[in-house]
Design brief:
Chain A is mainly alpha-helical. Helix content of chain A is 44%, strand content 5%. Chain A contains eight helices and four strands. In chain A, strands 1-2 form a two-stranded antiparallel ribbon. Chain A has a two-stranded antiparallel ribbon with strand order 3-4. The two termini of chain A are 41 Å apart. Chain B contains 17 helices and two strands. The longest helix of chain B is centred in the middle third of the chain and has 30 residues. Chain B is globular, with a radius of gyration of 24 Å. The C terminus of chain B is likely disordered. The chains are: A mainly alpha (270), B mainly alpha (432). Chains A and B meet through helix 1 and helix 8 of A and helix 4, helix 5, helix 10, helix 12 and helix 14 of B.
């Protein structure tokens, strides 16, 4: 009785699934889904490597400083960095005076209890990067976590910054309706191919690096991506450095554990 | 509750004697995980995963309590408090990654533990209660993990919560009010986040309670073993201490190495990037997917794309998703084969390795993939087999299968017939 009941319940689910499968298959044949421009022309991020990659990865402090400079002089016009405090910048190799000077360069909003107005004051080291007001098209995301908030994040940021181009003729030929709308910009590394952000890094020498590095678009893109790896995970270095002694200890302990296991079970067939 | 040859706890120190007369806690430990618990000598490494699961539970509770010290369950600040923990709290990053990856580790271990049970027939008499309590633990784990994933209030937290609580809306008549009652609103918001946090803190301790029952129920008949033949004599067993303490001990080492490799070098590999974007009810992610450990059941949910007679597709999906786990409760009575271990069941073994395992693998893969072809059709085939396996294949196979001959005893399976005969008492003695 129980067996019959169970087979009936089983048939209920399997027949329902077969029905779904059959109808789905029929639909695939009669009306196959149309190809989309996003599906065919979206590109995965380019291959790019950073000093912080790999199990022994370490930040390149010089590069982080250059990346911060790109952020400050270019990205910060539209993108905030709300999870990062000025004091955190000490990790990039700036000394106290430099951190204070950087903070001072930012205006931080404060609510004045007496007047009820929001005023601004110069930033101090303990402030976080202030919000960025933006009234244009699109919604510039906060960049603090951007390299962790996208698949293959660091490479994605680098690819996006260096990936602006004209729409390929093949795309327009196949999908005539997919012309990039006015005010948007074609970039195959962006999920739906057209984004509101105009190419932010346009020419060599857009920033002037203090360390003499040549500020090509490629270099600036790499530097700012490296900086954003740091903002997303300031403890990355410490994490990897902690991992090795932990694994070393565990390996040692496990070998001892294995030896004592062999010792205890010696002569006991199992 | 134990075998007659189980060693008795004999406190030697006067204090322990005093203690034993008043609160025999050391005796309980001795009888549970000490020298007083005889365990089959032939357990393979799949039997380490129960102990590992308990370790994961402890790890989750410890790291979770630390996380809770720095977390605020409020939609305005929840995301930021998690980030502050990671950035500004001493070792906060490690606690956070250990807790997030600890959930994954827990599920890896528990899936192995459950499938060990499937293959070796651990659910069969006299261990039905062990199995039923285990399924209860799994359901509680799923609820706990789901609510925990909502707490950081990222994009996947919010949209996952919306999709999963939306499932209750599929229940006829009471669905919508029920969903609103569960959420404390029309969509996931502060009320939902608060109660999820409260329950996420509560349920692990409920799990601890059920785990105690699970182990208690296990210790009545004692552990099963790879042959499925019950323990017959002392030579079939070894005391848990030191034998299995040593074996579990070094297994913990291997587990810890794998876990720490993930924790220190790939902490975000199993997470979804969208959960590093703060929750935004106005922006739906392109693909809403739960955490990987829910993928098989998510694939089953999405496999039902067509209304079935008068039952809407969504309700079918919800019924099937819950049914896919609830069917495990009936397993001890669906599988009537007198032989426990899959090793001695030629037909069952084939369906297990070439049916259930591939179907589960496909469901895992498709559950994480976008809801488009070919993934939907693949998951339909796999889900079809999944239900057929438990509800049709197992009852029929257990009726028609001719099992392979079983060894007489565990000792015989380990030592061979001749060696075992030397150890066994004379035949006349066994008759008496």
């Amino acid at each position: 009785m129980a067996r019959i009941l169970s087979i009936l319940v089983g048939l209920f689910f399997t027949v329902a699934l077969a029905w779904s499968f059959g109808k789905g298959a029929y639909q695939q044949i009669t009306e196959p889904p149309a190809a989309t421009a996003e599906h065919e022309f979206h590109l995965h991020p380019k291959e790019v490597s950073f000093a912080s990659d790999g199990a022994f990865g370490k930040f390149d402090r010089q590069q982080l400083q250059r990346g911060f400079q790109v952020y400050k002089e270019v990205c910060a016009a539209c993108h905030a960095l709300r999870h990062v405090a000025f004091r955190d910048l000490a990790a990039l190799g700036y000394n106290d005076a430099e951190v204070k000077a950087i903070a001072k360069g930012f205006q931080v909003p404060v609510y004045n209890n007496a007047t009820g107005e929001v005023e601004t004051r110069e930033g101090v080291a303990t402030d976080y990067f202030p919000p960025v007001l933006y009234g244009g098209q699109g919604t510039p995301p906060d960049l603090s976590l951007i390299t962790k908030a996208r698949h293959d994040g660091p490479a994605y940021v680098y690819s996006l910054l260096t990936g602006y181009q004209d729409q390929p003729a093949a795309l327009l030929k196949k999908f005539p309706d997919s012309k990039t709308p006015d005010g948007l910009h074609y970039n195959p590394y962006f999920a739906n191919l057209n984004l509101a952000m105009p190419p932010p890094l346009t020419g060599e020498g857009q920033v002037t690096y203090g360390d003499g590095t040549k500020a090509t678009v490629d270099q600036m893109s790499k530097d700012v991506s490296a900086f954003l790896i740091w903002t997303a995970e300031p403890k990355l270095e410490k994490r990897k450095q902690t991992g090795w002694p932990v694994l070393g200890f565990l390996l040692f302990a496990t070998i001892l554990g294995y030896m004592s296991y062999r010792n205890i079970w010696a002569g006991k067939k199992h | 509750m134990s075998f007659p040859w189980a060693k008795e706890y004999k406190p030697s120190h006067p204090f322990m004697q005093w203690m034993d007369d008043r609160l025999p806690l050391p005796r309980l430990v001795y009888n549970s995980v000490g020298g007083g618990y005889p365990v089959p000598r032939n357990l393979n490494y799949f039997w380490n995963f129960g102990f590992l699961a308990a370790l994961c539970l402890v790890l989750q509770i410890v790291t979770g309590i630390v996380m809770a010290m720095h977390y605020a369950a409020n939609t305005q600040v929840a995301f930021d408090t998690v980030e502050q923990t990671v950035r500004d709290v001493n070792w906060g990053w490690m606690m956070r990654y250990a807790h997030a990856n600890g959930a994954s580790a827990f599920f890896v271990v528990i899936y192995v533990h459950i499938f060990r049970g499937f293959f070796y027939g651990s659910y069969k008499a006299p261990r039905e209660m062990v199995w039923l309590l285990g399924v209860v633990i799994f359901l509680l784990m799923m609820a706990t993990a789901f609510m925990g994933y909502v707490l950081p209030w990222g994009q996947m937290s919010f949209w996952g919560a919306k999709v999963i609580t939306g499932l209750f809306g599929a229940i006829p008549f009471v669905g919508e009010p029920l969903q609103q009652w569960l959420l404390g609103g029309f969509a996931p918001d502060n009320a939902a986040l608060n109660r999820f946090f409260s329950l996420h803190y509560l349920l692990p301790f409920v799990i601890v309670g059920v785990v105690i029952l699970h182990i208690w129920a296990l210790h009545i008949p004692g552990s099963s073993n790879p042959t499925g033949v019950e323990v017959k004599s002392e030579s079939d067993t070894v005391p848990f201490y030191p034998y299995y303490v040593a074996k579990d001990g070094w297994a913990i080492g291997v587990f810890a190495i794998l876990f720490c490799t993930a924790l220190f070098f790939f902490p975000n590999a199993l997470g979804h990037p969208d959960n590093y974007i703060p929750a935004n009810p106005m922006s739906t992610p392109a693909h809403i997917v739960p955490e990987w450990y829910f993928w098989p059941f998510y694939a089953i949910l999405r496999a039902f794309t067509q209304d079935f007679f008068f039952i809407p597709a969504k309700l079918m999906g919800v019924l099937a998703m819950f049914g896919a786990i609830l069917v495990w409760f009936f397993l001890p009575w669906l599988d009537r084969s007198p032989v426990r271990s899959g090793s001695y069941r030629p037909l069952y073994k084939k369906f297990f390795f070439f049916g259930l395992i591939p179907a589960m693998a496909v469901l895992f893969y498709c559950g994480g993939a976008p809801a488009e072809e070919p993934y939907v059709m693949l998951s339909q085939i796999a889900a079809l087999y999944y239900f057929a396996h438990f509800l049709i294949v197992i009852p029929i196979v257990s009726a028609i299968e001719k099992p392979d001959p079983l060894p007489f005893s565990i000792t015989e399976s380990v030592l061979g017939e001749d060696e075992a005969a030397k150890l066994a008492p004379a035949p006349s003695a066994t008759v008496a």
